[in-house]
Design a protein that fits this description.
The complex is a heterodimer of chains A (409) and B (126). Chain A is of the alpha+beta class and 409 residues long. Chain A is 56% helix and 9% strand. The longest helix of chain A has 66 residues. In chain B, helix 2 packs parallel to helix 3. Classes of the chains: A alpha+beta (409), B alpha/beta (126). Chains A and B meet through strand 2, strand 3 and helix 6 of A and helix 1, strand 6 and helix 5 of B. Strand 3 of chain A pairs parallel with strand 6 of chain B, so a sheet runs across the interface.
Amino acid sequence: MNIIKRLFWKKRYDYQLALKEASKGMVQVTDPELLLKMIARFIDLRIRTRHTGILILEEEKDRYVFKASRGKERIPLRLIKLDRDSPLIRWFTPLDSVEPFKKRNVLVYDDLSGWLRDASLFEGREDLRLELMQIKKEMERFRAAVCIPSFYKEKLLGILILGAKLSGAPYTEEDLNLLITLANDAAMAVRNAQLFEDLRKTNIELLQKIEDIKSLREKERENYFQTVLALAETIDARDPYTDGHLEKVTHYGMRTAEVLFRARGLPMEDDFKETLRTALRLHDIGKVGIPDRILYKTGRLNDKQWTEMRRHPEIGAHILEPLKQLKKVTSIIHHHHENYDGSGYPDGLKADVIPIESRIIAVVDAYHAMTSKRPYRNKLQDDMALEELKKNAGTQFDPEVVDAFLKTI
Amino acid sequence: MINMLVVDDEPEICDFLKNFFTEKKYNVQTATGGEEALSKVRKDKPHVMLLDVKMPGISGIDVLRQVKQIDKGIKVIMVTVIADRSMADLAKEFGADDYVTKPFSLEYLERDVMKKVVELLQEKAR
């Protein structure tokens, strides 16, 4: 790290600058473990200790473990832990009021030894003396010369454990101030890095959730579509007069389209075929919204009934509206009763403005309606029906489509 | 003078534990592999051993078995990682006197080893 190298070779030992530069570098790092390694390295190079280690809280396990360790006599990572209830940890996390010896921001082994040698300090405070004895023992186990706690707000996030200086010199007030500031900056930076990491993970989770919702919606749409198809079959099956109308209409509709496109010298795209086939199967789905007394009336329909009957393309379009992938089909069904000359319903569209699929459906549908028995009349003979188509080519029907259809019979 | 043998494939861990126990006035030897460990056991019988379960080459369990064959009285404490717990239980079957799981507290290690040494001395006294 450039900053570290520069600081190491500087002749003048400028604490303020050192701190500023260290902080600057720290704030940019988002990986908490890397950050801790950087801090340990910084301290190691600056102060030249026998060992420098950083204990960090592992919340779920109620313990502190080494996340960074440097120096010839360093403590190996993943080997040692300190439980939350160990005397050293408890010293830094007091629940009661501050006592004369509890300077919560630093523990220096030499000072601690000094205190314990002075029996007069502990008059009537044997409990405190015992506590300090335990802490001294703990520091001896770690060969720690200095322990610096790292707080974030009131929480002990970690501890800096430093061995004696290689030079043998004691830690100065300046050293300790630097370390204390560093420790707290470290806590903040580590906390930020952790928050950043949590945020990143949350984002990933959210993105995953969005994907899950999308695929769920996809499934829902698929279900809806299948239901609509089933509905179309049901309508067809229900009507005693249709006699497999849907199947025939679909078949002849596709054939007519083939002939039409061939005549024009154009290829029929797969998308187009799909759309047309679906539209053919679903074109009368709107009839589910028409009362039976109108659908199956034996006599002619009166004006009011006729108005209602003519709503079935709109109803059909409405049923299909939630299926966004069938937007084209919806539009086709909406307009399958438009007339070529603009006299149709619901919108009075004219000629090429009417989707070609709708124009095809109009012809095929009309032919099969004529050649089926209806509640109000018998069926026409095939050739009479064809005559009707020819007669209305140009007005009700697209003449080109009629031509194409005639070729399929 | 209590003789201890620390066996771990990571030299850093051997060094650390050697320093730790030397300070407590133990006479500590180290080995980074099974073969080395066994030859040291034969040469200067340790009173107590810290034996890593997972090592390349001869496994910790194998070393354990052979050590117990050489001298049943040697107190062996297996050192495992949490994932090796079932292995640690198996080790007990093969005569391991105890196991510690990494990461462990130094206080615990110190007390545990001490306990084994005391047991040993009591057994010898009988």
